[in-house]
Design brief:
Layout (H helix, E strand, L loop, with lengths): L1 H7 L15 H4 L35 E4 L3 E4 L2 E4 L2 E4 L2 E4 L14 H4 L7 E5 L9 H9 L3 E5 L1 H13 L4 E5 L10
Parallel strand pairs: 6-7, 6-8
Antiparallel strand pairs: 1-2, 2-3, 4-5, 4-8
Length: 180
C-alpha cells in the first residue's frame, strides 16, 4: 500500500499529500461533449405523440352484464348496439350482423393507437360476416374475434384485463338463454 501511495505523491512524507501541485489532473477535470446533437438525437426535432387510453391504473373497461335491451358497462347503462373503445362507449348504428360493413367499422380502424383486437358480438348466435369486411380489417392490421354476444363480452373483458388495446362492437342478444 505504501508503494502505491508513494507513486501517487512522492513529495509527501506519508504518501497522503493531495494538492494542486502534485495531482492537478484530479482537481481540474473539465467535461467536454465529444459530439454535437443532431435532429435524430434531440426530441425537440422529432414528432412526439402521446395517447392516453386510461388515466387510472385500474384494470380497464369492464362489461358487467348484457340483456336484450343493452349492456351495463362500468356502471353505465347502454341501450341497443354499442361500440366500446376504452374509455369511450358509443352507440353503434347496426341492427343485426348483416349491417356490419366496412363503413360501420370505420370508427375502429381510424383510431390511433391502432386497435390490436376487435371483438364483435353478433347477437344470440355467432354469425358469419361478409368476407370482404374481414379481409379489409386484416389489411388494416386488426385481428377480429367474431362470437355470440355473451362470449364476446367475456372475451373483451379478458383482453382488457391483459391490458391489450382492444375494442368491441356489440349487438344485444335477442333472447336470454337460461341454463338448467
Amino acid at each position: 500500500m505504501m508503494a502505491v501511495t508513494r507513486l501517487l505523491s512522492p513529495a509527501s512524507v506519508h504518501g497522503l499529500r493531495l494538492g494542486a501541485r502534485t495531482l492537478p489532473h484530479l482537481i481540474r477535470s473539465v467535461q467536454v461533449r465529444s459530439h454535437r446533437l443532431g435532429p435524430a438525437d434531440d426530441e425537440i426535432y422529432q414528432k412526439t405523440s402521446v395517447s392516453v387510453l386510461q388515466k387510472e391504473a385500474s384494470g380497464g373497461t369492464i362489461i358487467y352484464s348484457y340483456s336484450p335491451r343493452g349492456f351495463n358497462i362500468d356502471g353505465n347503462k347502454v341501450f341497443g348496439p354499442c361500440a366500446v373503445i376504452p374509455p369511450a362507449i358509443l352507440q353503434w348504428n347496426v341492427g343485426c350482423h348483416t349491417d356490419i360493413t366496412v363503413e360501420s367499422l370505420s370508427l375502429f380502424y381510424l383510431l390511433e393507437p391502432r386497435i390490436e383486437v376487435l371483438v364483435l358480438g353478433t347477437g344470440s348466435r355467432t354469425e358469419r360476416l361478409d368476407p370482404n369486411v374481414l379481409a379489409f380489417l386484416k389489411k388494416k392490421g386488426i385481428a377480429v374475434e367474431i362470437q355470440d354476444t355473451p362470449n364476446a363480452c367475456a372475451t373483451f373483458n379478458f383482453l382488457s384485463s391483459e391490458r391489450r388495446i382492444t375494442a368491441a362492437g356489440l349487438i344485444p342478444p335477442t333472447a336470454l338463454t337460461v341454463m338448467e
